[in-house]
Amino acid sequence: MVRTGRRPGNQDTRESIISAAREAFAEKGYDAASIRFIATRAGVDPALVHHYYGSKDQLFLAAMRAPINPTELLPGILAGGPDGVGERLLTTLLRVWDSPVGAAAAAFIRSALTNELMAKMLREFIINRIMRTVAKELALDPAEAPLRVSLVAGQVAGLIMTRYLLRVEPVASLPAKTIVAAVGPTLQRYLTGDLSAG
Predict the structure, then answer these.
(1) pLDDT at position 36, please?
(2) Which of 26, 49, 158, 194 would suit a FRET pair with 152, their CA atoms being 20 to 30 Å apart?
(3) What is d(CA 107, CA 144) in angstroms, rounded to the nearest whole number?
(4) Are residues 142 and 86 in the same domain?
(5) pLDDT of 3 above 60
(6) Which residues contact 56 (CB under 8 A, 6 or more apart)?
(7) Sign of the torsion formed by the C-alpha atoms of 123, 31, 97 and 17
(8) pTM for the full predicted model
């Protein structure tokens, strides 16, 4: 039988919530895993989950041990509309990864590469939170949006792997503006350009 009601606010309670959240997000996906479902699985009142973690987004990021909330970066990237979005996306990405947060982000990505649960949660977050927002804000054709955003995700993942995890030269030490100039137009084409075969 699942316990209900508030537990005392201690580290065991927080860990119980995080553990239940990881299982729920991996099993049901981001959209279907409600705070109520997670609280029931953790044996706590939903209000306690909100007290500790605020929103479902924040709980999800805590469960993934994400060093930053990517959804907080999206408004600045998308604010200028479709024109130049590839360059803004890459400029923002490099600024974050070149900051002190970058080391934590690298540990986070390594964890996702070696842990299937974390990988599944990361995929879910990218698809259902980031890609959906980008597609909506840029008014992408719904038939093309999944391909477009997954091409961008693949390009970005490859760049992160090359520059920050494997540290392949000269990409690893190129100035950010050089990478933006070289790769930004590719991201722009993936998002807004012609994808048909030449």
Answers:
(1) 94
(2) 26
(3) 32
(4) yes
(5) no
(6) 30, 33, 34, 35
(7) negative
(8) 0.71
